[in-house]
């Protein structure tokens, strides 16, 4: 014996979610069915709507249900400055930090030859076409400081340089408020390599 | 700026789930929309079906989409022995331990005067009516060994004794403060074997 078929189906489906195993799925099922049916219907509807309607911005590739996302269609933002990131979550992080008022280009991943993910899979042709066609002054590469993120940044930088556009990489180093003794060696080496002269 | 409306709605709805905060909701949203749309549709459908069709067994009150659950309608099980538990998860834990071949009665909670949960809310009238009407020989109280679970067990024991039925409480092995659904099968079986009749 176990739970009834619809309950088993619900617990199985909840395990599609990252970080949700059998025990959490059971806890979620009991919570929804015993205490929050309204939440269950709401989540069902939200999943269906999003999975059906959310696509990618035709310009920056971020996730959105519009053809062109809110940022790309905002006339107050500087289309001459494009920040390249790996995921929509990176866009959100940068927006929440405030200060950047240019456009984005969202790779939706990074180069990973071992997984068969090449330049065309992360939209690099599209990025090059946009830089070539529009008046882009600078492309800021903000891929993650991981092996794949660095490789992706280098590949994009090499491709863009042929177009004569300015290409920069966000600085990596000791985070503000961080204490040197707790920072990993790789980050410290980045911080040293990226040192800048202090001038008055 | 943040995510588009349908994405925000999805992240909000995911936070209906216990243990899911803004960060996990974002991670789940990205996973579903970037890598597992099929999973999103499947989960949407499973939620809708379960929230719409799952009710309570008319006999034992457990969660099921049938009028009478699988256990209650199994002629091989002993209807003369009824185990009272707090939740459907407890039924599953006892079934997985194996060995118990009676029926269950699922309170779907416990007495909690502070939350306004009285005997009628946990189906005690229904339990008494069943014990009175059927040939029940023994009722095993397997509520959790918590303050509320103990209070609930004592209340039920007092009510049942008036009907002259044998009442026992599982005893050995279940650690105080522990919750039944997280106890291993061997310990649970010890608890059943070591049950003692409650006498005043
Ligand atoms: Zn866009
Ligand atoms: Zn039943």
Automatic annotation (TrEMBL), chains A, B:
Pfam families: RecR_C (PF21175), RecR_HhH (PF21176), RecR_ZnF (PF02132), Toprim_4 (PF13662)
Renumbered zinc finger spans (C4-type): 57-72
GO biological process: DNA recombination; DNA repair
Ranges where the Toprim domain occurs: 80-175
PROSITE patterns registered for this protein in UniProt: RECR (PS01300), TOPRIM (PS50880)
Keywords assigned: DNA damage, DNA recombination, DNA repair, Metal-binding, Zinc, Zinc-finger
Record CDD domains: TOPRIM_recR
Cross-referenced InterPro entries: DNA_Rcmb_RecR, Rcmb_RecR, Rcmb_RecR_Znf, TOPRIM_dom, TOPRIM_RecR
Entry-linked SUPFAM superfamilies: Recombination protein RecR (SSF111304)
Residue stretches spanning the membrane: none
Family of this protein: Belongs to the RecR family.
PANTHER family membership: RECOMBINATION PROTEIN RECR
Name of this protein: Recombination protein RecR
